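Hey L., structure's done. Input below.
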Amino acid sequence: MKTLYQAANAVEAHILQGYLQQEGLSVQVLGGYLQGGIGELPASGFVRLMVEDDQYEAARAAIARWEAARPASADD
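Output:
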């Protein structure tokens, strides 16, 4: 398995997981439950999406489409 995407939080990771599953890809969220440890752990960089090696390129293309379609946030 390869790391596909490092999410800002568990909510973003699960939204992307659902999107990728609709695209026919099998994706796992790792580290989503670690947010309960904030204070003891670094506050970012531990929630990630994992995909099988043979689906990595298709998943990267789907993530690129997702990012292109997202409206810019106020921080951008």
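The mean pLDDT is 84. The longest strand covers residues 2-6.

-- N.
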